Write the structure tokens for this entry.
Amino acid sequence: MHMADALISPVVGAVMLAASTGTIAYSVSKLKDGLEEKKIPLMGIMGAFVFSAQMINFTIPATGSSGHIGGGILLAALLGPYAGFLVITSVLLIQALFFGDGGLLALGCNIFNLGFFTCFVAYPLIYKPIQKKGISAKTITIGAIIAVVIGLQLGAFGVVVETLASGKTELPFGTFVLLMQPIHLAIGLIEGIVVSSVLCFIFKFSPDILENALSGAKNGVSSKTGAKNGNVSKKKILIGLLLLAFFIGGFLSMFASTNPDGLEWAINNVIGAPELMGQQGIQSVIADIQDQLTILPGYNFKAVDGEPAKVGTSISGIVGGLMTLAFACAIGFVITKLKRKKSCRN
Amino acid sequence: MSKLITALNNLATLEELAKKETTIHDLHPISKMFTTLIYLVVVISFNKYNLSGLIPFILYPVLMMAMAEIPYKPLVSRILIALPFSFFAAISNIFFEKTVAFQAFSVLITFGMISFTSIIFKTILTVMAVLILVSTTPVTKVARELIRIRVPKIFVIQMMLTYRYISVLIEETGNMITAYHMRSPKQKGIEMDHMGTFAGQLLLRSFDRADRIYYAMKCRGFDGEYRFAGSNKLNAVDWIYMVTLTGLFIGMRFINISIILGGIFGF
């Protein structure tokens, strides 16, 4: 479900990066006061654990397919939401940088979809209230399954909204939602069952880990802020963050609707007209040079729908593009050859 | 198992590549990070139909990969990871946008085909740009610059620890998987019923390991700080690299080199 850079627009990327950076800053500030020095290596190794655990393929009975473990709820249940969010963020950053899984500009979207919705929506609103009357294997199982499903559903919906707001895909909203949500419902159920069984195992052998994370005493949140103002301020902050999410969603959809993919707009974009029109001076100078250098003047491809000029320009764009591509490859090849020759001499 | 081995190899390859000594490796991390960021923003800012304007941007990764002696093999594996979702979102364009843009010889090219190609092309460009950054800049230097640009220290330190311990835990996971398969041969993966115990065991081992790491770090003077040696200033070459390339990228965003080149040759 990791989004790639190629599917987002700079505005969507920047807005989501800002929202995620804000959540990181908020989590750091919540952790800073009470963070035990010892917890830093624990957070680090938990990131590595999630990374490795996600690589374990397990077989899904009766389907013949395989799945992998989800990270957000597991980390929040083990470390608390703030530390869990930071850890999932660092895992996503490492995946983007070193494994090509999700892009750098799409990082904000991925943090929000996979980290925010799980740690700051599904965990406090679903998993935690279910454990309120006393933590047990039953409450852990129910809480984890529902929280993972809801977290993943919100994340998948986030992917739909962010991709459509970026205007890169022609998929209609309804079709996209119908494609994403049911698949992620099935994935969520499987992931939820596995996450709950891991948490139940931990609860059996080392219950203090889950109890500490729930109470928030040892996961880094200062007991002062946690006990005195905890419930009220957390709720306020959560509502604030939810409002922020809705605002961002609304803002993005408004942005999307003001950029309809009309044909006129599309044709202009194919031929690069708006970009060039803004450069009258440069354009006219370049046009003069072109006129003087043209090798095959007057030649044009067959027109479609009576648009000879535009078609011609787009053909020249494609031919020029292919020439640039060949040129780039040739330069790369020559430099590599020269470098090899040099190293052989040395 | 193959997934784990691929991940281990991937990390080892990138570490080895980042240790090389070329002109690009010698540049200051900040100038490379900033240039990469501008490149990514400019590339994704092209609308989905402007393929011709996008093609010249291949020059940057091709030149950098040649100059920094980065092989193309790791690139292919990264593209294979990044491609499925882009492909899924882009392929729909071919079916939903069937308006003919132009005709090349006897083939009708639709807007959907153009946007499909441009999304796939953008994926390749953005993956290449990030690969160039991480295979020419050691991770410790990236961490140093992240702290310098005021990314919270807790986050950077725990990210560095995660990065360092990924290979350790992957090895441990690999050992556990081998042990599991030796007891249950002919099985593809771990049975879903066993996942709780399996991942739970790994988790408990990780907790113990975190304790041992903490004590080892404490013995070596860890006090929550991350210290770096050496000077950290940008020199003239770093500035020239950063300003020239970002200027070029922004220029290429507004001047379509493909159209100019095609025009020169009469198309």
In short: Strands of chain A lie at 58-59, 66-67. Residues 5-257 of chain A form a domain with the Arp2/3 complex 21 kDa subunit ARPC3 fold (CATH 1.10.1760.20).
